Amino acid sequence: MIHQEKVGLIKESLVEMIHIADYSVKYKKTDTKKWGLNAGNGILGFPASVILFSAIDCIGSVFSENNNFKITIDGKQREIKSTSQHIYILNSKYFKLDLTQIDLDNIYNNVRSTLTHNSLIPEGYQLQIGENEKLPFNIGINENDKRIYFVNLIPLLGATKKAIEIFINDLDCGHIDFIASAICQKIEKRDVKTPMYYDTKKPGQFTIIIKKWIKK
């Protein structure tokens, strides 16, 4: 589907993300021919995590540079001003978590970013299915007095799914002015204005006229 407005695209993409994340969390790596030594009762934890954090990032990005959108962190009202602060959305009404500044920063830097860019996570950060856990993140202090994090994928999936439902409802009800958001305006500056013509021979499809090809 070709979206004439970007708000339609963001809603569809979030629904697609949660669909694939749900599949990844429910998938079992039991096929020894496919998974070899990694076969067992495991799930597709890495892709599930990357997709869920991408969805979290996406929701947070819509409120970047919005001075009217406040999030409580360590008892203080904060705003989302940069890409690394999109993670603050976890403490908003959409997720209702109460993570400290240090925990938000650690989750962003050492889980979200290293998984996305390096397919790795540092020691002290554990991905687990978390079927018996209530919170998306369990955080403790180990015997060396260092913080240690457990990312519980089933609760994180549930929290992100609910957040997306509330977020899309806010978009549909006009509670979020997506067109006026900084991220929408920044993306629009990259637009290449391209007329699209409805294809009468192929209902629901559009044709784009190319004057000449540079590469094909």
Name the helicity range: 40-55%
Q: Can you tell me the overall shape?
A: globular
What is the tally of beta strands?
7
Largest sheet: 3 strands, mixed
Number of self-contained structural domains = 1
How far the N terminus sits from the C terminus, by CA atoms, comes to 23 Å
> What is the count of helical runs?
6
Q: Mean pLDDT, nearest integer?
A: 93
Strand content: 5-15%
Keywords:
216 residues; alpha+beta; two-stranded antiparallel ribbon; 6 helices; 12% strand
Describe this entry's structure for a reader.
- This protein is of the alpha+beta class and 216 residues long.
- The protein has one domain (6-208).
- It has six helices and seven strands, in the order H-H-H-E-E-H-E-E-E-H-H-E-E.
- Strands 3-5-4 form a three-stranded mixed sheet.
- Strand 1 and strand 2 form a beta hairpin.
- The radius of gyration is 20 Å and the shape is globular.
- The model has no long low-confidence stretch (mean pLDDT 93).
Layout: helices, strands, pairs:
Elements: H1 6-26, H2 32-35, H3 45-62, E1 71-73, E2 76-78, H4 101-118, E3 125-128, E4 137-141, E5 147-152, H5 153-172, H6 182-188, E6 196-198, E7 206-208
Parallel strand pairs: 3-5
Antiparallel strand pairs: 1-2, 4-5, 6-7
Helix pairs in contact: 1-3, 1-5, 3-5
Structure summary:
The chain is α+β, with helices and mostly antiparallel strands. The chain contains six helices and seven strands.
